[in-house]
Write a structure and sequence with these properties.
766 residues, alpha+beta, 6-stranded antiparallel beta sheet, 20% strand, glucan endo-1,3-beta-D-glucosidase
Length: 766
């Protein structure tokens, strides 16, 4: 279960009613029990990866400090997050937007803005605008400072205060909520819009619209309706309509063309304000939304449940999103969560992404639902419930070896090439963690293949070479760009990256750690599997690198929980402590998958089965989102993106933008290839046969925009070899004919390519 330790210290919990009160003590510990779910791994306990040994790397403080004017350092538990989806709130001046789908939000010192982005596309990108449709603030100017005061597994809490200590505002932002909610204390609220206000209409609430299902409920429903928030529908001159929800009631009056204030002198106002865009069908959507008005989450957690069907096919694990809401009676969950359904009037209304909808189990998709809401990942689907569960399928073939055994002829060709690759001096000269990591992982792949072939002589040579390269980085730390532990943010970074934010791909600011250290962990996992004694001196530093990017424990005081992984989106965010108007991003899904595959293998090699199970679940979540959003079928691309951006490959996925390009170029072979590397048995998770066939030749004739022309134009380089290797999933013969003509990438060998085709490509008959 994810979510506990990120919130305010339990022993220093503010009392109920405080602006910073966001969690009932013990809630995160009991959430799985209330759900009837057993976690694959208890994240509230120390991980066995943490042996309480001394740090393996020397300690130093980052020159890039957290902004105390943006973080409430007295409330936020350290180590601080570095890659969360809402990081724009606390980087630089904190004024760039965050993207709680389907909205775009800014948190200024004196106000908050909310926009409903409109999406547009070209052939190379799908983008969204950053219009701030509304600004929410205090008409007296009493709000002057805002801070991030808490965060959890799914969202973040922001609080506004000012010179008048009695005037406060707070909001908890979560992705996938139809309502943006503000809690106000002693405020004179004012709502300003950049558009002209055409109409302000106070809505009445009817029993029918509230969901009455029997005459026997009339008395109960009448009381609930009396307690229900007041509803106001506002029409703007851009054609949009919004629903405003307040409790207690505010009668809004229009001031000028573009401002709303309370009609009567009932200020200061203490209560809640909610805002919801009414999508593309306001008359229908408003009827759905008003039934759920007034309920909002105060905390979110995620449970990664124990794996079902441990052996064979049909393996899966439930992923459970569990929201505590303002209607929970101050933390008494005995009634609300005794079952997986709750009274309609107390349910939370949420949106699910396409990959959730594909896999939902217990949750009720609304019918009629809500229409006209989307994110960069496609249309959003409305679901009712405080607890939402989907079943994550697990590919049962993941191991050190490939999907199927090599034939005798395959073994012969792979062994022949292995002799050649071992004979060539494999020298790693790269000084940085990324390219050095690719180098040692390349040697480790050869070592693994030699072990599979029973080639003990080659295995011994490769093992010695692997240890010889790894020890200066991890044991003696005599390499030219040594790794150090950053005491400011809680992570392992390169010396060059710490001194220069642009060095080592932004490594010192926590860019791409899962990409970089995933290669190191793969090398360590293979070594641990075959020679645990030789591995022993490397164990502690490697375990600390793993805890840096994929720490499975909230009890760890040195590294944050799962630095990169976003459990709502189902994938990682690579971008670290850099601000982007488009939000977080990730380019290489292949290297993200390698990171969690390596973590899984590492835990297996050390005999840590529960930890391995957890990483296997995360690995498959990353792969599911990778296939859906970076490797969509053409049908999926047309459904979730906007024409003319209908590619079946994405280069960079942002929170609010999709690029058919990479950070290092727009060549199609780069866009396809970066989503595949490195080729290991886990790469097969991304390369579904139907997708490879369609991506190779999308139109079936000229193959325009497909992998085939991309591979042919790449002039037999390493990128071409990646694409031909992928082709082996559907056409082994053509793949073999072409990969041998290509020069391997610096992190690859022809031995690995031939082995991958033999064990993960199209299976040879006979």
């Amino acid at each position: 279960e994810e979510g506990h330790a990120d919130f305010t210290h339990q022993d220093n919990m503010p009392k109920k009613g405080s602006i910073r009160s966001a969690v009932a003590p013990g809630y995160q510990y009991t959430a799985p029990v209330l759900q009837g779910v057993v976690s694959a791994l208890d994240p509230n306990k120390q991980s066995p990866l943490n042996t309480n040994a001394a740090l393996a790397f020397s300690s130093t403080a980052s020159p890039y400090k957290p902004n105390g004017k943006l973080f409430d350092m007295s409330a936020i538990k350290t180590p601080l997050p570095t890659n969360k989806w809402w990081l724009n709130l606390v980087i630089e001046q904190g004024i760039d937007p965050i993207h709680p789908y389907p909205y775009v939000v800014k948190c200024l010192a004196n106000a908050s803005t909310v926009g409903f982005p409109k999406f547009q596309a070209t052939a190379t990108a799908m983008t969204s605008n950053m219009v701030a449709d509304w600004q929410i603030g205090d008409s007296t100017g009493a709000l002057t400072q805002r801070l991030v005061t808490a965060y959890d597994a799914l969202g973040v809490q922001v609080a506004w205060t000012g010179s008048n200590s009695n005037t406060k505002m707070a909001a908890r932002f979560y992705k996938g909520l139809p309502f943006i909610t503000y809690e106000m204390t002693n405020m004179a609220p004012v709502l300003s819009t950049i558009h002209a206000i055409l109409k302000v209409e106070q809505l009445g609430l009817t029993v029918n619209s509230y969901g009455a299902n029997s005459a026997g409920n009339a008395t109960k429903l009448a009381k609930e309706m009396a307690d229900h928030p007041s509803l106001t529908q506002v029409t703007l001159n851009d054609g949009s309509q919004w629903l405003l929800v307040t409790k207690p009631t505010i009668q809004w009056k229009q001031t000028g063309n573009s401002q709303l204030t309370p009609a009567t002198s009932t200020t200061p106002f203490t209560g809640i304000l909610q805002m919801a865009h009414l999508g593309d069908n306001p008359s229908s959507n408003v009827n759905v939304l008003q039934a759920y008005a007034g309920t909002y989450p105060t905390e979110g957690s995620v449970t990664y449940a124990k794996i079902l069907n441990k052996q064979g096919v049909g393996r899966s694990a439930d992923i459970v999103y569990f929201y505590k809401t303002n209607t929970d009676g101050g933390g008494d969950t005995s009634m609300i969560y005794s079952t997986r359904s709750v009274p309609t009037s107390m349910q939370l209304l949420t949106f699910m992404l396409p990959h959730h909808v594909d896999l939902l189990t217990n949750s009720s998709i609304l019918s009629p639902g809500l229409s006209g809401y989307r994110s960069t990942k496609g249309h959003l689907t409305a679901v009712a419930g405080n607890i939402i569960t989907y079943s994550q399928p697990l590919d049962g073939t993941q191991s050190f070896e490939g999907q199927h055994a090599m034939t005798a002829s395959d073994k012969e060709s792979v062994q022949k090439q292995l002799y050649l690759d071992v004979a060539v001096s494999i020298n790693i000269t790269a000084p940085d963690p990324y390219f050095f990591g690719k180098g040692i992982a390349k040697i480790a792949r050869l070592y693994q293949i030699a072990q599979e072939l029973g080639d003990t002589q080659s295995a011994s040579t490769l093992k010695d070479k692997l240890i010889g390269y790894m020890k200066p980085w991890l044991v003696t730390r005599t390499n030219s760009d040594p790794l150090v532990y950053d005491t400011t943010w809680g992570g392992v970074v390169s010396t060059a990256g710490l001194a220069d934010p642009s060095a080592d791909f932004g490594q010192g600011r926590y860019n791409d750690h899962h990409f970089h250290y995933g290669y190191h962990l793969y090398a360590g996992a293979v070594l641990a599997k075959y020679d645990i004694n030789a591995f022993a001196p490397l164990r502690e530093p490697l375990s600390q690198l793993l805890r840096d990017y994929a720490n499975p424990s909230y009890a760890d005081s040195q590294f944050p929980f799962m630095r990169h992984f976003d459990p709502y989106d189902g994938h990682s965010w690579a971008a670290g402590l850099f601000t982007f108007a488009d939000g977080r991003n990730q380019e290489s899904t292949g290297e993200a998958i390698n990171a969690y595959y390596s973590a899984y293998l590492y835990a297996l090699a050390l005999g840590l089965q529960d930890t391995a199970d957890f990483y296997e679940i995360v690995l498959n979540m990353e792969a599911t989102s990778g296939r859906r959003y970076w490797h969509p079928t053409l049908a999926q691309a047309k459904a979730q993106y906007i024409a003319p951006f209908t590619h079946n490959a994405v280069g960079i996925l942002w929170a609010s933008k999709v690029d058919y390009a990479t950070f290092f170029g727009a060549n199609p072979e780069f866009i396809y290839g970066i989503q595949m590397i490195p080729f290991t048995p886990a790469t097969r998770l991304l390369l579904a046969a139907d997708w490879v066939k369609e991506a190779w030749c999308p139109d079936g004739t000229s193959c325009s925009g497909g992998m085939k022309p991309a591979a042919e134009s790449a002039n037999n380089n390493g990128w071409a070899q990646f694409l031909y290797t992928a082709l082996s999933v559907v056409d082994r013969k053509m793949a073999l004919a072409n990969v041998v003509k290509c020069n391997p990438d610096d992190g690859n060998t022809l031995t690995n390519v031939l082995h991958w085709i033999a064990t993960s490509g199209q299976q040879q008959v006979g």
